[in-house]
Write a structure and sequence with these properties.
By secondary structure, the protein is of the alpha+beta class. The protein contains 9 helices and 14 strands. Strands 3-2-1-5-8 form a 5-stranded mixed sheet. A 5-stranded mixed sheet has the order 4-10-9-6-7. The mean pLDDT is about 90. The structure holds dinuclear copper ion (CUA). Dinuclear copper ion binds near residues 173, 212 and 219. Dinuclear copper ion binds near residues 137, 211, 212 and 219. Its main location: membrane.
Length: about 350
């Protein structure tokens, strides 16, 4: 008994924590601060259903409390049985018709938005078509019409529909960009479709929203929206092979001997691991470690012990003590080469 009483004392603390935590989050990962038409429609549905629920709860509670107070037996009252209204037509009609009206108010927009948001824009000439493939624990993005492929950073033009075909290479994941819309499960051997659209140029955070293994919580990605001109420049840059400076040539050889069997570095290449074309322009290493300017420590940590960064990753350790042996100097050369992949 005492133990339970102690637990009750924590309730104010939990309440305070809840209030504090509601202040967390940011503009680029919040379904409550939509940054595109799809997310706006979804927020409207959330507000509508929440509004109806709150209205119903309020009305029921007000009547309940009123009846409790008004009709309770007071001191000196006689034992009387109040007038029975069982089978009252008026009441039965009221509590049947009102829920029907509320359900209609909820159902009509929900169904129409569901139909609208599941429109297929893959053949739409004005849309950008991207194939999304989820892997444990990273994201692959192929742009079939543009002839490019990338990983971790989904780069899109603003104010255009991005038609997504979503699938998985291993287990069930879920594709979610809270600020832009979602989410959609990724299933093996099955393709789901959805579309997104961003209002302005920004970097939005995306998440895997389905428990998928040890590093589920680290399966982040970015959606980078750019103006049309910047997007086209990005596509062109990705299509051109990176200019490798002379001091990165040694690293290029290390890469060819050890990494190329899994990681493509050309425009369209698909491999067992993420395509690293344009790697040096990405903000994150493996989606979770900041690259940091003039700081290669994170990249070094990732190469020599990836499992400590992302438990369960399929990337083997490369280094003096790794499963795949590389000398310390070779790791340094490799980092130099990766940093040249603009
Ligand atoms: Cu992938 Cu969770």
């Amino acid at each position: 008994m005492n133990r339970w009483q102690n637990l009750w004392r924590f309730i104010p603390l939990f309440g305070l924590m809840m209030l504090l935590l509601t202040g967390c989050g940011s503009d680029t990962i919040s379904a409550l601060r939509p940054r595109g038409p799809v997310a706006r429609d979804q927020l409207f549905l959330m507000k509508l259903s929440l509004g109806i629920m709150v209205l119903v709860v309020l009305v029921v509670f007000v009547i309940y409390i009123y009846v409790l107070v008004r009709f309770r037996k007071k001191k000196g009252d006689k034992d009387i049985v109040p007038k029975q209204v069982e089978g009252s037509h008026t009441l039965e009609i009221i509590w049947t018709v009102i829920p029907i009206i509320l359900l209609l108010i909820l159902a009509v927009p929900t169904v129409s938005y569901t139909v609208k948001l599941s429109e297929n824009h893959i053949e739409n000439k004005d849309a950008v078509h991207v194939k999304v493939t989820a892997h444990q624990f990273w994201w692959q993005f192929d742009y079939p019409e543009l002839g490019i492929a990338t990983a971790q950073d989904l780069v899109i033009p603003t104010n255009k529909k991005i038609a997504l075909e979503i699938t998985s290479a291993d287990v069930v994941h879920s594709f979610w960009v809270p600020s832009l819309g979602g989410k959609q499960d990724t299933n093996v051997g099955m393709t789901n479709i959805m579309y997104l659209e961003a209002d302005d140029a920004a970097v939005f955070l995306g998440k895997c929203a389905e428990l998928c293994g040890a590093s589920h919580a680290l399966m982040d990605f970015k959606v980078i929206s750019k103006s049309d001109a910047d997007f086209n420049a990005w596509v062109d840059k990705l299509k051109k092979p990176a200019a490798i400076p002379a001091d990165a040539k040694a690293g290029e050889q290390v890469f060819k001997d050890n990494c190329l069997s899994c990681h493509a570095v050309n425009a369209q290449g698909l491999g067992f691991g993420p395509n690293l074309n344009g790697f040096a322009s990405r903000e994150m290493i493996a989606g979770v470690l900041p690259r940091g300017k003039n700081n290669d420590q994170n990249l070094h940590d990732w190469i020599v012990d990836p499992n400590s960064v992302k438990p369960g990753t399929k990337m083997p350790a490369f280094g003096p003590t790794g499963a795949k042996h590389l000398e310390e100097q070779q790791v340094k050369d490799l980092i130099k080469y990766l940093n040249a992949l603009q």
